[in-house]
Specification:
This protein has 437 residues and is an all-alpha fold. 75% of the residues lie in helices and 2% in strands. It has a two-stranded antiparallel sheet with strand order 1-2. Strands 3-4 form a two-stranded antiparallel ribbon. The two termini are 38 Å apart. The model is unreliable at 1-20 (pLDDT under 50).
Length: 437
């Protein structure tokens, strides 16, 4: 029952909801507060995603596993994340943001508690799986929030800054977690981090509000059934092209930054792992700055297609310079990789294409489809690169592990070169989707 003085209204899901009364003085800043709160959770889930990098040795010792088992353990996050993109996108469209974001924070926190208290490998995998489940809807919710509460022509800018917040969460997972780990131990450190997630859930429940229609409501908010919405998204040529663009382009991050980049730098430049990892991480620093930049470019040029073309072309040239060029100094290769990440930040415009193309009532479903394809990139390209590296391997091993030459890496990583090239070619088949009204 709706309380007197708070009249009911029809929310974006087509259900009756309680109108939120916001004082005029607060109304201007309230959307920014909601967006910032949601991006804090986005940074938090990135922190959780990257945490095994710091805790790898302790996890291997605690559960008596090797590097292969650790990789499988870590992958449970991505399995849940990728599998839930489309379902969670549909859920966001149907029940709204407040419940999805608050429950997401709660599940992330519970997953972290489960991970921290696990005594067996099965239990710790369950914790990692829950982390992925809780994280799955956060980025999609941020996109939906921007779509509903900000003018359409500011979408690219806010999308870029959202990615910056998430990337900063990944970058900052190192030092703070390492400090906590050294002071408290890995289990107690994760307990503290879980408490942060619970607090974030409470904040999001208190701050996030669903609204009846988007701020820019030139397109009617039509109620679309579940299956009709899925069919609309999956048969839309623009969405399919944007998804393929994301699938191919994301290989830079999923397969180079997250897996093969560090070992390639170690082999090509004769560096130890910490130094090589630090150089590879400059890609994510570049992404943090490139996302907002390409958002501004998109709004300045009033185009989604042109920034996507520039981002893919720039990434292709820079990746070729890193992979096929001469041996650079550490400073130069770091600058090249930072610039590569900067250009990769332009990939985010494919999400803008999705929200420009479909009705608001299925926008989260569309972005879920695109994000599923991006996450699937690692599933395809990571093993493909490994197989290509083994084609001309000379059979030399080191401590029982295959020792690949620089030439082996160049052959394998050429799959990423081809992928970026395909992403660039894809943009020629896309229509301009920037909103003209």
């Amino acid at each position: 029952m709706v309380r007197k003085g708070n009249p009911a209204y029809m929310d974006e899901t087509g259900n009756m909801a309680e109108k939120t009364t916001i004082a005029p003085s607060v109304r201007v800043v309230f959307p920014y507060l909601m967006w910032f709160s949601a991006t804090l959770l986005y940074g938090y889930q990135f922190f959780l995603r990257a945490s095994p990098t710091v805790l790898a040795q302790q996890l291997m010792q605690a559960f008596k596993i090797d590097a292969t088992d650790l990789g499988i353990l870590v992958s449970f996050y991505y399995m849940a994340y990728a599998a839930l993109q489309i379902p969670i996108g549909v859920l966001i469209d149907k029940i709204g943001l407040r419940r999805v974001l608050s429950v997401s924070a709660l599940i992330c926190a519970l997953g972290t508690l489960q991970f921290a208290s696990a005594d067996t490998l099965i239990e710790v995998k369950l914790g990692r799986l829950l982390m992925g489940c809780g994280s799955a809807g956060v980025f999609l919710s941020c996109i939906k929030l921007i779509t509903l509460w900000f003018p359409r022509k500011q979408f690219g800018i806010f999308l870029g800054f959202t990615m910056m917040m998430g990337t900063l969460g990944a970058i900052n997972a190192g030092a703070p977690l390492a400090f906590l780990n050294q002071s408290l131990g890995w289990r107690q450190s994760l307990m503290v981090i879980a408490m942060v997630g619970l607090v974030l859930g409470g904040i999001l429940w208190g701050v996030i509000r669903d609204r009846a229609c988007p701020l820019s409501n030139s397109r009617a908010v039509e109620k679309i059934s579940l299956w009709s919405g899925l069919r609309l998204v999956l048969t839309n040529k623009q969405i399919l092209l944007a998804s393929f663009y994301g699938f191919t382009f994301y290989a830079v991050l999923s397969s180079f930054s997250d897996l093969w980049g560090t070992t390639y730098i170690m082999r090509a430049y004769g560096l130890e792992r910490p130094a090589a990892a630090a150089i590879t991480s400059t890609i994510y620093i570049g992404v943090a700055f490139g996302g907002p930049f390409f958002g501004f470019v998109s709004e300045r040029l009033q185009s989604r297609k042109i920034p996507m073309m520039i981002a893919a072309a720039g990434s292709l040239l820079l990746f070729c310079a890193v992979l096929y060029g001469p041996e650079y100094s550490v400073t130069v290769v770091s600058l090249l990789l930072f610039s590569l990440g900067f250009c990769v930040g332009g990939k985010l415009m494919n999400f803008a294409v999705a929200t420009d193309t479909v009705p608001y009532s299925v926008s989260a479903t569309a972005t879920g489809v695109i994000n599923t394809c991006a996450m699937a990139s690692g599933v395809v390209f990571q093993p493909l690169i490994g197989n290509l590296m083994g084609l001309n391997w000379n059979g030399v091993t080191e401590h029982g592990i295959a020792r690949y030459t620089t030439e082996n890496y160049v052959l394998g990583l050429s799959a990423i070169t081809a992928a970026i090239g395909l992403a660039f070619i894809t943009t020629f088949f896309m229509k301009e989707s920037y909103p003209k009204d």
